[in-house]
Specification:
The protein has 3 domains: 112 residues, 2-Layer Sandwich (Beta-Lactamase), CATH 3.30.450; 118 residues, 2-Layer Sandwich (Beta-Lactamase), CATH 3.30.450; 157 residues, 2-Layer Sandwich (Alpha-Beta Plaits), CATH 3.30.70.270. The protein is of the alpha+beta class.
């Protein structure tokens, strides 16, 4: 196609330009920027338009665009549409073709500008692909994503049920306004964990924490592990927390069961020697400072004779009965343990005075007397008890244990089946 001098200005336009007719067979007048865009020279492009314009222009896109131009004849507005083109090297590009239609422009041809958006579309496609990959990963894990805004007191939970075709924006999040008020009203976190969550919000920290929480539709708490990191604004100031939650209920229950088994004596169900020592030492390091406590060492009298005379199976029954009586005699605040073959320990925490301990020991001896072991052979359990009191006898496990142990052996030497402070 030969250009006249009237088209010199058209060729100087710094964008790809087309003159597109609204009626008749599709025809195009193009500028030099358009030729550079599609990779053809003037002669080649002229031949393509005459013989088969669809070699460059997408037929459906052109048909729709020309229809928009016809419908807008005589109006004053912008008409735009996506237009796909094929370059000389067969690569596909995507453009936006736009025409400013005016009331005065009642001619056959309309001036249009084209903007290459191929890279933008590729970036959008890659973005959507990345989002699809992210959603696939999220949907195939048990993790829940959350985001909390400090200033707005707003918690957002990611909704896995929203499909990818929906916008990857705020519609994908379930919003909880005034979350800290909601925590109190709905009791979302276990009472022992609620203050820990509030501390994270108040101190604006980050890290990992295990807490018990519940869904609003359920009364039951489940163990969750939360991994959370700070969000910052452009000036580096913390504005919120983003993180994930993973359900660890089964793992936690299994771990607690294993820990419980490792802490308790398999025969009697009482704490074992290692665990009771750890519990008492931790108590003195924290809540037990300055409080009055009593530690009792109980050693069954002549237990070797029981095993030698009645057998080990009967001996196990004696130990089990002794453990049950000891555990049932002392209260829920007291700790009971089997620390050796026929040796037991009782730790009475935070007592007002020794009167209550004295009464419990007397009751234990009475319970032994009234509950002999065996049907034919009525064996009455007898024991020697040594007692130490904190803080006067010491404020740690070892000193109290040694003192109570010495007092117990005093009972052994003075006739057995009694107790000594």
């Amino acid at each position: 196609m030969t250009h006249s001098n009237d088209l010199d200005f058209f060729n100087r336009i710094p964008v790809a330009g087309l003159l597109v007719n609204k009626i008749g067979r599709p025809n195009f007048i193009y500028n030099l920027k358009f030729l550079a865009l599609v990779g053809y020279d003037d002669a080649q492009m002229s031949e393509i338009i005459v013989k088969d314009y669809t070699k460059v222009f997408n037929e459906e896109d052109i048909k729709l665009f020309r229809e928009k131009l016809r419908n807008c004849e005589g109006c004053k507005k912008s008409v735009k549409q996506e237009l796909k083109l094929t370059r000389s090297d067969s690569t596909k590009i995507i453009t936006i073709i736009e025409a400013e239609v005016s009331e005065e422009n009642d001619g056959n041809y309309v001036l249009c500008a084209l903007t290459d958006i191929t890279e933008i579309r590729k970036a959008q496609a890659n973005y959507m692909l990345e989002q699809e990959r992210l959603l696939t990963v999220i949907r195939n894990t048990n993790d829940d994503l959350f985001e909390y805004n400090f200033k707005e007191d707003l918690l957002k939970l990611f909704n896995k049920n929203v499909l990818l075709k929906d916008s990857f924006g705020d519609s994908r999040w379930i919003r909880y306004e005034k979350f800290t008020e909601m925590m109190s009203k709905e009791k979302i976190f276990h009472p022992e964990d609620d203050s820990r969550i509030r501390s994270i919000i108040a101190t604006q920290g980050e890290g990992r924490i295990q807490v018990r929480m519940r869904h609003l539709a359920s009364p039951d708490f489940r163990w969750k592990e939360m991994q959370y990191n700070l969000l910052h604004d452009d000036e580096g100031r913390p504005i919120g927390i983003v993180g994930s939650m993973h359900d660890i209920e089964e793992l936690k229950v299994t771990t607690l069961e294993f820990k419980n088994k490792s802490q308790h004596d398999s025969l009697t169900g009482l704490y074992n020697n290692a665990s009771v020592k750890e519990i008492i030492e931790e108590y003195f390091a924290n809540d037990g400072k300055g409080k009055t406590n009593a530690l009792l060492i109980l050693d069954l009298d002549d237990f070797k004779h029981v095993n030698d005379t009645y057998g080990h199976r009967f001996g196990d029954r004696v130990l089990k009965t002794a453990a049950d009586i000891i555990n049932n005699t002392f209260g829920e605040n007291d700790i009971t343990a089997r620390i050796g073959g026929d040796e037991f320990l009782v730790f009475c925490r935070d007592i007002l005075d020794m009167t209550s301990v004295n009464e419990k020991v007397k009751q234990m001896f009475a319970n032994f007397e009234n509950n002999p072991v065996g049907e034919e052979e009525k064996y009455v359990i007898k024991t020697s008890v040594g007692i130490a009191v904190s803080p006067q006898d010491g404020t740690g496990f070892k000193r109290l244990f040694d003192k109570a142990d010495r007092n117990m052996y005093k009972v052994k030497r003075s006739g057995k089946n009694s107790y000594n402070f």
